[in-house]
Specification:
This protein has a domain of 119 residues. The chain has 16 helices and ten strands.
């Protein structure tokens, strides 16, 4: 699939057969897509002054997320892997042309698709505000409404940092994002942004590229801070437990593999290289790369606040499909439920649609993700965690392999305790 992405006045000769995507504006015709208008308006309204190449990175991310909606996996030759070509208008086309291959490799790892990037002049770079506001916070944290990001923000504030919380507004989570930010520490500065990406026709639901837009919002915020404008590097915290971050294939066929590689060290490492090449002084960090979700809960610095808010958080990969209830049976839900069990802090009253994992029917223990976890547990028992992992930690961007293997082994133990507690066979 080919897309041409840029402001409404951007034109590319010979692109009549491509999907045109209006960046930072509204579609001008029924067959056009669009993304980013509301986000740009909110950034301008807040009088923030991000770095020019942060705006370009956002243009790229908006183009990618729109393509992720528009390109259907079902029509690809293997029913999954897509070939996507993007022509994108940016303010610094010469520089981004040098990063086209690096971006394609990072996105290929994130989404398992084939990407081609071409960059053109004509991208948007809003004029600096007359009276810019430089937030005084010393770091940025992504606050999704999920349990891991809640723990991460709590720990940062409890540790004496002043995080600027950035949220990608998602239906069903927007209110809790605001509540979490207000209740952490003495209240966190908080910016909610929405990509509002739309494409005509049927929409792809897998959404493997969504983490790029979330991190790009974080980079926008980080380069707007006073600390950044003073010449310092700004940490951008992407808080996710190590088990979910590594995304281990639970079975040889990848049946039940997790839905995202948002904080996988290879993806973060590849993206960090692009950020560094762009001269953006933003450091991506996941402080929980070697912790299980249960360990994150047990070690959280403010147990009182966590006990009050944890069950309100969202972990489910199918949250919207179940009318904003967590299914209880997908892999992220199982990891969550295992973490609550390992924590023992409070009863898990999340209200799962499928509560009884051990029930022997197609909705509970017979569901693919429940079976795939059970298969993984059996494989680890018979072959050991090293053999089960295979090449999952083969990336040269992964440093502490021993620490990650130990963490994954502990994560498997948490899942084993969950299955035993519910009598999954």
């Amino acid at each position: 699939m080919k897309l041409v992405c840029g402001p409404k006045d951007f034109e590319l000769p010979g692109a009549d057969d491509c999907l045109q995507v209006i960046l930072f504006g509204q579609p001008q015709a029924q067959r056009q897509g669009s993304a980013g208008d509301a986000a740009k308006n909110e950034i301008v309204r807040k009088r923030l002054d991000p770095a020019p190449r942060a705006w370009d990175l956002l243009s790229i991310a908006l183009s990618v997320i729109t393509a992720d909606f528009a390109a259907l996996r079902s029509v690809s030759p293997d029913g999954w892997t897509r070939e996507i070509e993007l022509d994108i208008a940016v303010a610094d086309a010469g520089f981004w042309a040098t990063q086209a291959h690096a971006l394609a490799e990072a996105l290929a790892f994130l989404t398992t698709d084939r990407w081609i990037f071409r960059f053109h002049d004509g991208g948007i770079h809003p004029a600096p505000p007359r009276e810019p506001f430089y937030p005084p916070e010393d770091c940025v944290v992504l606050l999704s409404g999920g349990l891991d990001s809640l723990v991460g923000a709590i720990d940062l504030a409890a540790g004496g940092l002043k995080p600027f919380a950035i949220s990608q507004t998602v239906r069903g989570d927007a209110e809790k994002q605001v509540d979490f930010a207000a209740r952490i520490g003495s209240g966190l500065a908080h910016l909610q942004l929405n990509h509002n990406a739309t494409a005509p026709g049927e929409q792809e639901t897998s959404q493997r590229a969504r983490s790029l837009i979330f991190i790009s919002f974080g980079v926008i915020a980080a380069t707007a801070l006073q600390r950044y404008h003073d010449g310092d590097q700004v940490p951008l915290y992407v808080c996710e437990n190590g088990f979910i971050a590594i995304n281990p294939p639970l079975t040889g066929s990848r049946l039940g593999s997790l839905s995202t590689r948002t904080a996988h060290p290879e993806f973060l490492g590849r993206l960090q290289r692009v950020i560094n090449a762009a001269g953006l002084r933003v450091l991506l960090e996941n402080p929980y790369a070697e912790k299980t979700k249960g360990e994150m809960l047990r070690d959280c610095a403010d147990q009182t606040l966590l006990k009050a808010e944890a069950v309100r958080s969202t972990s489910c990969g199918r949250f919207q499909r179940f009318n904003y209830r967590q299914c209880g049976r997908c892999v992220p839900c199982q990891v969550r439920r295992a973490a609550f069990l390992a924590w023992g802090g409070i009863p898990d009253t999340s209200g799962y649609v499928y509560e009884a994992l051990g029930r022997d029917d197609t909705d509970h223990s017979g569901f693919d993700d429940v079976r795939s976890v059970a298969i993984a547990l059996a494989a680890v028992s018979s072959e050991g965690v090293d053999s089960w992992l295979g090449h999952a930690l083969a990336s040269p961007l992964i440093g502490s392999r021993t620490g990650l293997i130990d963490m994954l082994d502990r994560g498997v133990s948490e899942l084993r305790a969950l299955h035993e507690a519910y009598g999954v066979k």
